[in-house]
Amino acid sequence: MPTPYVGRFRGRVEERWAPSGGVCMGSGTENVLDLLTFLLLRARVRTPSLGEFSSFVARTNTCGELRSSHLGQEVTLCGWIQYRRLHRQNTFLVLRDFHGLVQVVIPQDESAASVKKILCEAPVESVVQVSGTVISRPPGQENPKMPTGEIEIKVKTAELLNSCKKLPFEIKDFVKKTEALRLQYRYLDLRSFQMQYNLRLRSQMVMKMREYLCNLHGFVDIETPTLFKRTPGGAKEFVIPSREPGKFYVLPQSPQQFKQLLMVGGLDRYFQVARCYRDEGSRPDRQPEFTQIDIEMSFVDQTGIQSLIEGLLQYSWPSDRDPVVVPFPSMTFAEALASYGTDKPDTRFGMKIVDISNVFRNTEVRFLQDALSKPQGTVKAICIPEGAKYLKRKEIESIRKLAADHFNQEVLPIFLKANQNWNSPVAKFIMEEERLELIRLMEIHEEDVVLLTAGEHRKACSLLGKLRLECADLLEARGVVLRDPALFSFLWVVDFPLFLPKEENPRELESAHHPFTAPHPSDIQLLYTEPEKVRSQHYDLVLNGSEIGGGSIRIHNAELQRYVLAALLKEDVKLLSHLLQALDSGAPPHGGIALGLDRLICLVTGAPSIRDVIAFPKSFRGHDLMSNAPDSIPPEELKPYHIQGIIGLLQPDTSDRSERLDIAHHHESAELCYHHCIGFKPLHRDSHLLFSKIITNSILLSNHAAFTNYDSTLRTVTGQRPGISLMPLSTPFKRFMV
Question: Which residues pair with 455 in a beta bridge?
Answer without folding.
Answer: 378
